[in-house]
Amino acid sequence: MLQLPETPRPTKKLASLEDSYEQCRQVTADYAKTFYLGTQLMSPEKRQGVWAIYVWCRLTDELVDGPQAAFTTSETLDKWEEQLESVFAGHPVDDPDVALVDTVERFGLDIQPFRDMIAGQRMDLVRDRYETFEDLHLYCYRVAGTVGLMSAQIMGVERFCDRLQAPWSPPRVLNNPVNTINKAVDLGIANQLTNILRDVGEDARRGRIYLPLEDLAAFDYTEADLFNGVIDDRWRAFMKFQIRRARKYFAQAESGIGTLQKDARWPVWSALVLYRQILDVIEQNQYDVFTRRAYVPSRRKLMSLPLAWLKSL
Ligand SMILES: CC(C)=CCC/C(C)=C/CC/C(C)=C/CC/C(C)=C/[C@@H]1[C@@H](COP(=O)(O)OP(=O)(O)O)[C@]1(C)CC/C=C(\C)CC/C=C(\C)CCC=C(C)C
Ligand SMILES: [Mn+2]
What we know:
Elements: H1 17-31, H2 33-39, H3 44-65, H4 74-88, H5 95-107, H6 112-126, H7 133-155, H8 177-198, H9 200-205, H10 213-218, H11 223-227, H12 233-257, H13 262-284, H14 298-312
Helix pairs in contact: 1-2, 1-3, 1-5, 2-13, 3-5, 3-6, 3-7, 4-6, 6-7, 7-8, 8-12, 8-13, 12-13, 13-14
This protein binds ligand LST6JFWI and manganese (II) ion.
């Protein structure tokens, strides 16, 4: 059969690898100061890898949350997913993809967490309520647990115990990768549950409730109460319950950090300790997440870094 030459794809001149990583660095530094600080403690390869996935996650989130969100449809996400497939096939489409293609190859990243994150953004297009915690858990896995999976592949798992041991004792296997992976997902979920509690008021103003309706009902608190920002004993008890649940996920994640490669431990401990403090601030604000944004002051953030360092030893 006659083989026609392939129609050449219109080629756009893309950034060089160096410029692409520099763009990713810049975006991370501007949008995620704490994560960026954490990446400074990692090896240059890991640091660049985290910037590349940060930018991809940010762009994905922007599709449903950014200024153009009103124009995002299921087809927009289909296109975004095609672009992702192209990146994983080694063909960058836009400037930040150049760095991502390199990161994917360097670390042998798996595409599934990226696809799952897009599936999470699809949920945002069609849902604004979650009946059960199980429903919400799936959403949290998709938009945040996946970040844990992507990051853990870059940070790398240290399989053997590196504490001081008697020279004659066999190396102790500290963990299996499956365990680390679960804990990486737990940290993402803990962060997302915290995000949700912090943003209750903001989400309600957009007509969205990311709290399990079954839990609201169990505390006899109605959607109308939520939209009216009612803070009473029912709300306080409800929030205590949700905060306890988020802390449980942080606690589960803790034991995974020691299984990561050394240079990743302090950054991840810092991320955990800093994010978890948002829950403390919500408590200090007497659970008012309607009119006050739980914000951890920079001084307090800085003061927790030595504690994170101690924990990472
Ligand atoms: C074994 C073990 C414990 C390993 C550690 C694995 C690890 C590093 C886990 C961290 C996971 C993490 C940082 C999750 C972020 C979760 C999160 C906040 C997701 C947000 C989703 C959407 O939420 P929403 O729209 O409600 O929120 P906004 O109002 O828009 O903020 C996200 C916004 C999804 C997109 C996520 C990001 C942009 C953050 C990506 C971050 C990284 C790649 C850096 C991770 C690196 C370090 C050093 C922690
Ligand atoms: Mn968002």
